[in-house]
């Protein structure tokens, strides 16, 4: 098939592109040009079945040109950082909501299939859940941050286009994805940030008491999930959670990495917009054949071994890592 991946040079997008090429598909990547995008594409940039379009999902003309002549569109490009969204909500609305609108309008015109990467952040804190109760796809969306709200708006916009225009759209809601190539630096994700601090001989910073829990999924498992969705024709109009089904305290992750490097831990004030827990129900995902293969500790070990082999610039990535927006971050 001819497949477009927006954000295809980002963290998740580059791994998905690797997999799609290995399966024999032809892939077009829509991504802004950056040092991190170039690094992420090293393994396939010259592949005969890869085309690269430098541009942003905020540019309607570029989006229409990219979407045309493709069977499937994976829309992964987004701004993703909660902290950054608190200081610059407008850029998140522009990229995540209006960028998705532009993708949807192009899909509406050319009748492609759309697989949209949403996020667990659309759920917020798991409001009113009883002990042992999980977040399934029917849970109310109550995002805590401008980032979460922008993704919730895009998520529901996708659903509205399915209902209004009878488009073939599936919404994937990944939980906390981590692994090789993930962005670090100021607005980086937790595990890469901690590993970078440890490698640099710094204290590992933890915000609040570290009692918040997360359901972490290794990047190879979310790629398997995307491939399952691609092959399944029954998910039209559906949202699907993809997670490990296991929750881990942030404190335990910090302590594990600290013990690996013999590093010290430094506590800082809790951050606004932080979600306390994401207990995922992955029953629907399992019904289509999804089974997570890499647990969090194995995944962290893989990331550490990879990070140790990278030159220093791989830890301090620029602010454009795999986005289709000049200020964005690829979906995590």
From TrEMBL:
Matching CDD domains: Arna_like_SDR_e
Residues covered by the NAD-dependent epimerase/dehydratase domain: 3-241
Database matches in Pfam families: Epimerase
Gene3D superfamilies: NAD(P)-binding Rossmann-like Domain (3.40.50.720)
InterPro entries attached to this UniProt entry: Arna-like_SDR_e (IPR045869), Epimerase_deHydtase (IPR001509), NAD(P)-bd_dom_sf (IPR036291)
GO molecular function: carboxy-lyase activity
Protein family membership: Belongs to the NAD(P)-dependent epimerase/dehydratase family.
Protein name: Nucleoside-diphosphate-sugar epimerase
